[in-house]
Amino acid sequence: MLFVSDLQATLRFYIDTLSFEKRRHSAGGKGTVCQIDRGGCEIIQCENAARKDRGRLFVELNQVSAP
């Protein structure tokens, strides 16, 4: 999770420049939380100017079975 001061500007950068895709956006696309994805890398962005220099990292480990 990344905290940002301007969610719309951040989304334009991630989507237009880095080719991420928007997966979920609160309040029908007008909210302050949005999930984006690219190649299995999911990032949740939250607009909160007071916390813009902070983030949270969630790690998911999946067991892969042998063929």
Question: How would you characterize the overall build of this protein?
Answer:
This protein is of the alpha+beta class. The chain has a single domain, classed as 2,3-Dihydroxybiphenyl 1,2-Dioxygenase, domain 1 (Roll), CATH 3.10.180.10. The chain has two helices and four strands; from the N terminus they run βαβαββ. It has helices at residues 7-17, 26-29, and strands at residues 2-4, 21-25, 33-38, 41-47. It has a four-stranded mixed beta sheet. Strand 3 (33-38) and strand 4 form a beta hairpin. The protein is globular and about 45 Å long. It starts with a strand and ends in a 20-residue tail after the last strand.
Keyword list:
four-stranded mixed β-sheet; alpha+beta; 2,3-Dihydroxybiphenyl 1,2-Dioxygenase, domain 1
List the helices and strands and how they pair.
Layout lengths: L1 E3 L2 H11 L3 E5 H4 L3 E6 L2 E7 L20
Parallel strand pairs: 1-4
Antiparallel strand pairs: 2-3, 3-4
Task: Summarize this entry quickly.
This protein is of the alpha+beta class and 67 residues long.
CATH architecture tag: Roll
**CATH level 1 name:** Alpha Beta
Overall number of domains: 1
Order of SSEs: EHEHEE
For the largest beta-sheet, the strand count, sense and barrel status come to:
4 strands, mixed
Gyration radius from CA atoms, angstroms: 14 Å
Number of helices: 2
Uncertain regions spanning at least 5 consecutive residues:
none
Number of strands: 4
Question: If strands are numbered along the chain, what order do they take across the biggest sheet?
Answer: 1-4-3-2
Cα-to-Cα separation, first versus last residue: 34 Å
Q: How much helical structure, as a percent, in the residues?
A: 10-25%
State the oligomer. Answer: single chain
Shape: globular
According to CATH, the homologous superfamily is 2,3-Dihydroxybiphenyl 1,2-Dioxygenase, domain 1
Structural class: alpha+beta
Per the CATH scheme, the topology name is 2,3-Dihydroxybiphenyl 1,2-Dioxygenase, domain 1
Strand content: 25-35%
What's the rounded overall pLDDT mean? Answer: 87
